[in-house]
Amino acid sequence: MGKTERFGFVHGGGGGASSSRFPKRRRSSRRDLDESEFFEEEEVPTVERQAPEQETRATDSGGGGGGGKGNRTGDLLKHFNNGPVTVTLNDPEVLDCPVCYEPLNIPVYQCGNGHVVCHRCCCDLMNKCPSCRLPNGHSRSTAMEKVIESIQVACENADYGCKEKMSYSEKYDHGRACHYTPCSCPLAACNFVGSFHQIYQHFRGVHKHAAEEFVYDKVLRITLSVHHDLIILQEEKNGDLFILNNSTEPDGYRISVNCIAPSCKGGVVYSIVAKSGGAVYEFNSCTKSIQNWDENNPPSVASLLVPSDFFGSYGQLHLGVRIQHPRK
């Protein structure tokens, strides 16, 4: 509730007093109304206010002439009507549905008491207001819909490089598809957080010797020890980061590969071949994109289960790992 967010409101343009600020009244149906009476009743509220006498004198004394400063109110009004303005909303949750807590999207419905609800929840609640139980679903909240249409917000990943702006209702959908979703450095002792591109650059510059380099579509030979919980792989050209995880199971060792990347990047096809004596285990799967690596709680993914005796008397296993290029 204490969260503060800045929004940009986009106005429809046009000069003078905009109809979006002061809606015109409906014309009277009385035919005996003369012209003077009509304009008296239909007069639109004026925006410009006469400054107090003392304030006006202070302005006029500032320097000569017909007064540029005296028109500050008109200039301010012209600014509001001709372009977007930035406002601060101390409680952005007022733009969320009070039932599902998702951002309100058009259409928005309201009951007779003005309580709003999104279209989906209105249907789920059988057109009953969740706040006062009055009938709902018959009246649109046009004021709220205009606010939703006007608001533009920056991506929550702006600090990591995203420059996109979108309507408030599109904020969460964009967040799930944003390529700038922050990722953490996979090394437990490092607290670096950044976009996946920043993570790749950081790892190559700071932890270069902590990774095994590989080339897409070529087999990488790895000797895996029973004491290895993970091996970090970094692609030679693109710098993409992968984690080969080795977790202990009662009946052997479970081996899988994951990619450090935003969820929107999808998985990458890979294969693992494990050999011991004359026995061969081959496994093909697809990586899962993860943003934070927790060695105590690795992600649940498809994996290769290798019997303990494959590691031999020295506790080592020879693997061949091939990761397919993502564009293929």
From TrEMBL:
Catalysed reactions, semicolon-separated: S-ubiquitinyl-[E2 ubiquitin-conjugating enzyme]-L-cysteine + [acceptor protein]-L-lysine = [E2 ubiquitin-conjugating enzyme]-L-cysteine + N(6)-ubiquitinyl-[acceptor protein]-L-lysine
The organism's place on the tree of life at top rank: Eukaryota
Stretches assigned to the SIAH-type domain: 150-208
Biased composition (Acidic residues): 34-45
Tagged with keyword Transferase: yes
Keywords of this entry: Metal-binding, Transferase, Ubl conjugation pathway, Zinc, Zinc-finger
Domain RING-type: 97-133
The protein, known as: RING-type E3 ubiquitin transferase
UniProt entry tagged with the keyword Metal-binding: yes
Molecular function in Gene Ontology: ubiquitin protein ligase activity; zinc ion binding
PROSITE patterns according to UniProt: ZF_RING_2, ZF_SIAH
EC identifiers of the protein: 2.3.2.27
Family under the similarity heading: Belongs to the SINA (Seven in absentia) family.
Signal peptide: none
Region Disordered, residue ranges: 1-74
Function, as annotated: E3 ubiquitin-protein ligase that mediates ubiquitination and subsequent proteasomal degradation of target proteins. E3 ubiquitin ligases accept ubiquitin from an E2 ubiquitin-conjugating enzyme in the form of a thioester and then directly transfers the ubiquitin to targeted substrates. It probably triggers the ubiquitin-mediated degradation of different substrates.
Pathway: Protein modification; protein ubiquitination
SUPFAM superfamilies reported in the protein's UniProt record: RING/U-box, TRAF domain-like
Gene3D superfamilies recorded: Zinc/RING finger domain, C3HC4 (zinc finger)
Gly residues compositional bias, start-end: 61-71
Enzyme class per UniProt: transferase
